[in-house]
Amino acid sequence: MLVSYELGAQFGTSIGISAYEGGVYGTALATMGMLAVMGMVLALDGFGPIADNAAGIAEMAGEKTGIETMEALDAVGNTTKALTKGFALGSALLAAQLLFQTYATEVLAKFPDMTSFVVDISKPAVLVAGFIGAMLPFLFSSQAISAVGKAATEMVNEVRRQFKEIPGIMEGTGKPDYGKAVDISTKAALKGMVVPGVIVVVVPLIIGVLLGPVAVGAVVIGTTITAVPLALFMNTGGGAWDNAKKFIESGHYGGKRSPAHAAAVVGDTVGDPLKDTAGPSLHVLIKLLSTLSIVFIPLFLNLLHLI
Questions:
Q1: Quick one: how far is CA 106 from the chain centroid?
Q2: Residue 307 has pLDDT above 60, yes or no
Q3: So what's the pLDDT on residue 236?
Q4: Is residue 85 within 8 Å of 53, Cβ to Cβ?
Q5: CB–CB of 152/238 below 8 Å?
Q6: Which of 142-151, 162-171, 226-235 has the lowest mean pLDDT?
Q7: Is the pLDDT of residue 128 over 90?
Q8: Can you give 207-252 as a three-state secondary structure string?
Q9: Which long-range CB contacts under 8 A does 258-267 form with residues at least 24 apart?
Q10: Which residue from 5, 7, 210, 271 could staple onto 241, CB 3.0 to 4.6 Å apart?
């Protein structure tokens, strides 16, 4: 980010524009460069689920040959998925910088009383807004993880009901109601994201109306700073927990049905929503919060005496 900005600034001064505008241009080129290899990223991201599904299908079919190979490929897939999520996070961070620069420019255009856009954390309102932004990714992630847990509990209860009410499922003579399970997961996926979505929309709007546009800038900065390491932790930590379970199931530390395996199953249960739900959703949080801040600028009251 620093290199792209500096090179862009040098290019800007060489063609007669400001160093700041040139730096923004350099950052934009770096963002486009990361997005230019999206085909490779999508291929890496698709490898993991394909290998995982192949192992699952083989296991359900009772196939014994090649299971170990497919499990190993699934572990590789978890690693590649963590890599691609980091790639997406990097592009989100560069995009967030561009959006923040756009936000600062638009605020100065909308509020002629402001001569410069400076996020000064020595002012209480700006510091409070920064703390709110720093806590936002944790609240957002907790809601996403909680939604996964509630949906999983509902799914378990439905499976138990079908085992109890539909005879012959285990023996293969009865047919489960797959549609009900799909319906539960679909509704939960939609309903569970309502609260996180509302949080992203409401927070910058309230902060902007009560504390002014500079405070919203502090919210965006605080959110970006904490969301990036939190997403990296969730992506890599979740994948590590998933692979740890596979490693133990291959015969290490006592193998299946051992205390280590029981602990690894718990870790995988936590790791799945971390790497597949909460971690990737933070990329959306970073971009969406910056975008909504720009959209809401006309609604912010010019309460600059507070900041």
A1: 27
A2: no
A3: 86
A4: no
A5: no
A6: 162-171
A7: yes
A8: HHHHHCHHHHHHHHHHHHHHHHHHHHHHHHHHHHHHHHHHHHHCCH
A9: 267/241
A10: 271
